[in-house]
Amino acid sequence: MKNFAQLFTQLDQTTKTLKKVAALVDYFGRVADKDRLWAMAILSHRRPKRTVKTSLLRVWAAELAQVPLWLFEESYHVVGDLAETIALVLPPAQEQHDHSLTHWIEVIKSLAKKEEDYKKEVVLHAWNGMTYRERFIFNKLITGGFRVGVSQKLMMRALAQFEGQEENAIAHRLMGNWTPDTISYEELIRSENPLDDISRPYPFYLAYALENPATDLGDPKDWQVERKWDGIRGQLIVREGNLFVWSRGEELVTDKFPEYHPLTSILPDGTVIDGEILPFREGAPLSFNVLQTRIGRKNVTKKILASAPVILMAYDLLEYQGKDIRSTPLRERRSLLEKLLSEIGPQDIIILSEVLKITAWEAATAARAASRQHLSEGLMIKKLDSAYRAGRKRGDWWKWKIDPLTIDAVMIYAQQGHGRRANLYTDYTFAVWDGDNLVPFTKAYSGLTDKEFNKITAWVRKNTKERFGPVRSVNPELVFEIAFEGINASSRHKSGVALRFPRMLRWRTDKKSADANSLEDLKKMLNLYG
Fold first, then answer.
1. What's the whole-number mean pLDDT along residues 504-518?
2. Which of 44, 53, 138, 463 has its CA 20 to 30 A from that of 310?
3. What contacts 99, CB < 8 A, 6 or more positions away?
């Protein structure tokens, strides 16, 4: 655990990519395979599940620190992070444990079905032999909320350096439904063939946002232009008579989309298609809000299948006749994809993404402007001679999203943030006018500068009306321009609407609360774009 605590500290104290990679390489070289494997799992979001209720951890920490529970809770509201609050209030350790990361994870997992008294004894024993940083990490792990400021891509880069392998090969090996409980480090990283697991997808190729004028890309004849659909990016795999569907978030979602199961006998073995899991009915896409009714459900009922049908909008072909063709130019992969889908005949569950006929960038600009009419987010622009690479690379693939919708709203509630912003009020609830009343309709916490958050925090402290734990009701005076990607009807919200990806575009210091938009304005947007 000491090694992992040291790694966490090094990663937390720098924003430099090279230093983070160096710290990871150093860690991989100092620990045993099992600890290395668990570190990889944690950094790729394969954390152990929570085995102790946070309410119990709060009570135990307050008892051990000999402080009233109300004082602990107030401290938590100020700090903004439970694991850190516990680590800060606990008295100095009376012992010194020297166990590995794997040991403590196994201890945490073993508590799942134990009685409360036993759990308390184990947790107090752990705390009593750890440093502050070790306690913090232990608390993060036991609550199932461990996060650290390093991307999975950086972790893969460090692992590739440590193992002397290509980064793409490491990325491929780490895709899939593995855990340290189901595979060893040797099998995962050093086995001869990363395709031994027939379900394993390829790393997704991601696009950068287009910031410069499209004309800077040169001749449009060198580019493939498609609509950017608003669904879930996924890979559909057929190998050895089995079908697998993976989301971009590396989640195996085959069982969540039974519509695709017939493709097992329709598509030939050795086929991997990159596309969009898209809600679709009667020849047209549906809003993402429809797809959300299926996300997170353990059981997909007949009613859900009928109300939220999906198709696969096929973008690219990554494996053909069992051969990895990602290094083949896009124009050839596209030709093979068209050939493949033509050979299997028209299907209701897989559709070829349309390539727009663009001979001048002005036509692309017009197509982008009409995106909302097609329920798309904008355009994808891909170089025809590009390979299918891993991760986000600049130059070959671009996403040209439409401008967001915006509305002016009044802040009515403020809540403290987390981590480095735990002492600032950064999470806000916004409302619009319904006659003489303000109706809450969304929350947002991103889009402003640290300087602005500091100013707003000072204002919140002077203009608080009521306190509800960490939330403050404030005087309805500040106006913000809220940007969002889409709007849908919602029975769960008092306003009757739900926004997609809301964030603060700017603080409208030039406006008074009376100048904010109304609920009627929101409903007009709903009629136009919902």
1. 95
2. 44
3. 1
Domain residues of the chain, as ranges? Answer: 2-142, 205-401, 405-529
Backbone angles phi, psi at 89, to 5 degrees: -85, -20
Radius of gyration of the chain (CA): 26
Contact 141, 127 (CB under 8 A): no
Angle 116-127/54-65 helices, nearest 10 degrees? 50
Question: Token pair 């529970």 is at which residue?
Answer: 69
SS3 177: coil
Tell me the one-letter amino acid at 76: Y
Nearest to 206 by CA among 398, 481, 456, 363: 398
Decide: residue 437, CB within 10 A, 0-12 exposed, 13-18 middle, 19+ buried.
exposed
Burial of 332 (0-12, 13-18, 19+ CB in 10 A): middle
Give the distance between the most distant pair of CA atoms in the chain: 74
The residues, any chain, with a CB within 8 Å of residue 363's CB and separated by 6 or more, are: 356, 357
Predicted pLDDT of residue 528: 78
pTM over 0.70: no
Assigned CATH topology for domain 205-401: D-amino Acid Aminotransferase; Chain A, domain 1 (3.30.470)
Question: Tokens representing 148?
Answer: 């650290």
Q: What is the pLDDT of residues 124-182, one digit of tens each?
A: 999 999 999 999 999 999 988 777 767 777 888 899 999 998 776 787 788 777 889 98
pLDDT averaged over the chain?
90
> For domain 405-529, which architecture applies?
Beta Barrel (2.40)
- Phi and psi at 517, nearest 5°, equal -75, 175
Q: Please state which CATH number belongs to domain 2-142.
A: 1.10.3260.10
* Spatial CB neighbours of 119, under 8 Å, sequence gap ≥ 6: 51, 52, 56, 111
279 vs 312: CA distance, rounded Å: 9
Q: Could you give the CA distance from residue 406 to residue 484 in angstroms, rounded to a whole number?
A: 6
